[in-house]
């Protein structure tokens, strides 16, 4: 979503970093380009003015201009200003009320309100271990209540039984009573939307809010609508007591102005972001992490969290035991490829690693991101179990058979085998160094989920501490073999 803005800002700051010393004129010229980049990203004009004035005032100070690394200092100032504009800290749901805690979902028709309700219910059920019920109050849109019931079955979340002809306020009363009697922790109310903000919509919402006394009123807006999303949020906040915003389609090609303007214009925090169509594609909105992605610093914390969510513990333990012995066959490589697919593919991972922005753009433009992992898996899948366990068995005749079976070429099969060989060699070297535990200690302890890859650097540092090629010293690297494979 922020790709075009990120590319523009990266170009500005690359020029600043390339200079040994900065003058006030250099900083002001760079800030003018930042202003243009933000305006092109559809950020509200008053927000841009305040942002640039504040950042410029700090950047032209003597502390920056006389710094050893003035370019990096300017980047940090812009990073901090972006975080402040987006809302400083991630905003959590306030569910500290007598159960059931009511969350009321409001918004215009077509913004993804019903789907977001199901996503939030699934998240509260699985991550927060809450007992959740959903109820559809949308009696205007055909099959809206049935849609929520279907989504409830997909998310394995209870929904209120449908009673035809019942008014929204009466449905809210029945849902509240049912949730209390059945001991639910959270009740999600999916209200009706309109094509535009009107008095009937507002009156209906106010009546539902007075009956249900919600702990949270979340406005769902489509990020693709740009500044109109901000206008919608302003209109709603003037009528009902909103507690937060959920931006949908954050994975789309919107310019990002709505997200950057929302907090500053409305005063309401963005609490969640929809990042895909899947029922599990809802993420907490972390301003500092979003700012890091915009400025090309990556988002290692989110990468670690995503790994923890998707990693299969049994697979990881089995692989760790084999790696401790210096063993790494094609079955293990296939498991790693599947793990990358579950985490969103190489493009998603590259976007979260410091210094990998250019590689991500190259993969996106070539269309490789979505295909390369599937092709590699197809090659391994065309081998026999014996060949996967002992890759050295693959002679020229077998390689031709594997290439034909996977719809690839012998050259691609050879590149895969070379990549596996490089990774297997790396595993043996790690074993000789005393295993992953000692390697982690060598790189400063901590590590990513116990993997011994160093620790996350401070805001504005641009990388990982202890990971070679990071911390502002250069790009982070893909696993051994992958980089060479992609270059070819």
Topology (SSEs and partners):
Layout: H1 3-17, H2 24-40, H3 45-59, H4 62-65, H5 70-86, E1 101-106, H6 113-126, E2 132-136, H7 144-155, E3 158-159, H8 168-181, E4 186-190, H9 199-212, E5 216-222, H10 227-237, E6 244-248, H11 257-266, E7 270-274, E8 282-284, H12 287-294, H13 300-310, H14 313-324, H15 330-342, H16 345-352, H17 357-366, H18 369-381, H19 385-389, H20 396-406, H21 410-432, H22 435-442, E9 455-456, E10 464-465, H23 482-487
Question: What does this 3D model show about the protein?
Answer:
By secondary structure, the protein is of the alpha/beta class. The protein has 23 helices and ten strands. The strands form two sheets. The protein has an eight-stranded mixed sheet, sandwiched between helices. A two-stranded antiparallel ribbon has the order 9-10. A hairpin with a 7-residue loop joins strand 9 (455-456) and strand 10. Helix 15 (330-342) runs antiparallel to helix 18 (369-381) and helix 18 crosses helix 20.
Residue share in helix: 55-70%
Rg over CA atoms: 26 Å
Going across the biggest sheet, name each strand in turn: 3-2-4-1-5-6-7-8
Estimated share of beta-strand residues: 5-15%
In round numbers, the mean pLDDT is 76
Low-confidence stretches: 438-478
**CA-based shape:** flat
Count the strands? Answer: 10
Distance between the termini: 28 Å
Biggest beta-sheet profile? 8 strands, mixed
Contiguous helical run count:
23
Task: Kindly name the structural category.
Answer: alpha/beta
């Amino acid at each position: 979503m922020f790709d075009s803005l990120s590319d523009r800002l990266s170009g500005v700051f690359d020029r600043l970093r390339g200079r040994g010393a900065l003058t006030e004129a250099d900083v002001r010229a760079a800030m003018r380009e930042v202003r243009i980049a933000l305006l092109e990203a559809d950020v509200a004009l008053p927000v841009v003015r305040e942002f640039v004035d504040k950042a410029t005032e700090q950047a032209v100070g003597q502390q920056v201009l006389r710094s050893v690394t003035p370019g990096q200092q300017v980047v940090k100032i812009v990073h901090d200003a972006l975080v402040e504009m987006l809302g400083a800290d991630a905003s959590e749901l306030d569910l500290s009320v007598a159960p059931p805690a009511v969350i009321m979902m409001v918004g215009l028709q077509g913004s993804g309100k019903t789907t977001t309700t199901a996503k939030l219910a699934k998240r509260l059920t699985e991550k927060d271990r809450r007992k959740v019920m959903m109820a559809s109050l949308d009696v205007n849109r055909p099959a809206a209540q049935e849609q929520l019931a279907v989504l409830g079955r997909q998310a394995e979340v209870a929904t209120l039984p449908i009673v035809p002809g019942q008014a929204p306020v009466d449905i809210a009363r029945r849902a509240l009573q049912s949730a209390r009697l059945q001991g639910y922790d959270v009740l999600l109310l999916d209200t009706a939307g309109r094509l535009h903000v009107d008095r009937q919509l507002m009156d209906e919402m106010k009546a539902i809010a007075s009956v249900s006394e919600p702990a949270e009123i979340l406005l769902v807006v489509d990020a693709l609508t740009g500044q109109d999303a901000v206008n919608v949020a302003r209109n709603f906040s003037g009528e009902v007591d909103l507690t937060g915003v959920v931006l949908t389609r954050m994975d789309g090609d919107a310019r990002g102005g709505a997200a950057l303007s929302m907090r500053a214009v409305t005063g309401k925090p963005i609490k969640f972001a929809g990042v895909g169509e899947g029922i599990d594609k809802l993420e907490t909105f972390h301003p500092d992490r979003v700012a890091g992605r915009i400025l090309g610093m990556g988002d290692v914390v989110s990468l670690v969290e995503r790994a923890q969510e998707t990693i299969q513990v049994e697979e990881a333990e089995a692989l760790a035991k084999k790696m401790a012995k210096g063993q790494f066959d094609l079955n293990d490589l296939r498991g790693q490829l599947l793990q990358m697919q579950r985490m969103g593919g190489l493009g998603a991972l590259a976007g979260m690693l410091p210094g990998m922005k250019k590689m991500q753009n190259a993969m996106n433009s070539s269309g490789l991101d979505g295909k390369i992992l599937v092709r590699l898996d197809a090659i391994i899948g065309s081998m026999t179990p014996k060949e996967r366990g002992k890759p050295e068995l693959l002679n020229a005749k077998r390689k031709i058979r594997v290439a034909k079976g996977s719809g690839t070429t012998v050259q691609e099969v050879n590149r895969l085998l070379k990549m596996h060989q490089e990774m297997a060699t790396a595993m043996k070297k790690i074993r000789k160094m005393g295993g992953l535990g000692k390697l982690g200690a060598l790189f400063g302890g901590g590590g990513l989920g116990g993997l011994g890859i160093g620790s996350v650097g401070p805001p504005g540092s641009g990388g990982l501490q202890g990971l070679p090629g990071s911390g502002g010293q250069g790009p982070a690297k893909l696993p051994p073999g992958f980089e060479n494979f992609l270059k070819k």
